[in-house]
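Chapter summary example: a protein plus thymidine-5'-diphosphate.
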Amino acid sequence: MKGFIVFEGCEGVGKSTQLRFLQEYLEKTGQAAVFTREPGGTPLAEEIRQLILTKPMSAETEAALFAAARCDHIDNLILPSLKEGKLVVCDRYIDSSLAYQAYARGLGEDFILKMNDYAVKTCMPEAVVFLDLNPLESWRRKKGKVIENDRIEGEADAFHLAVYDGYKKLAAKCDRYLCVESNIDKSVTAQNVLNALRERGIVK
Ligand code: TYD
């Protein structure tokens, strides 16, 4: 979908900071945009978020709940905002389900794509900004500080490395990926994100 931008990456890569930089830039240059996040973005999806991040469940149930939250988000926020001509910038989307549930949980891409059929058919992002940083390096930069203590973030290093590996595999084969190294200097990363989006004509 034209104007639909997603940010992806492992835990603690600095997505929130980069989203803030982009928001400031879009405001300054008068480009209307809605910033949102997954899981969440609508009242129902925020309730599903609480369930996913706090209750123990199977990998299949987890994938189904992410997809359910996504359906509600698409119908009630993403598509209506795009139809109004706004940019939509989302913190995580289906590529998180591919990296975390398909690859790291081992459910496989086919399973996740089938479960996300509605998202895939009606609403794929024009660009996925992948902030590239090995999760062990981001832990090191943060000196082990946990940002939001949830069930998935609390998984072992091997899980987060499998997520990273999943993203790298997706980035290598999907045109929607714009890979930007997460530099220690956040303003350098922000400039590189902006350059990548401008080069594709997605933002002015
Ligand atoms: P969040 O606190 O938003 O993580 P972050 O700040 O790193 O973006 O928590 C969302 C968690 O859910 C995060 O660990 C990634 C995970 N997730 C999936 O496993 N699959 C998905 O489809 C989505 C959207 C998120």
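Key point: The radius of gyration is 16 Å.
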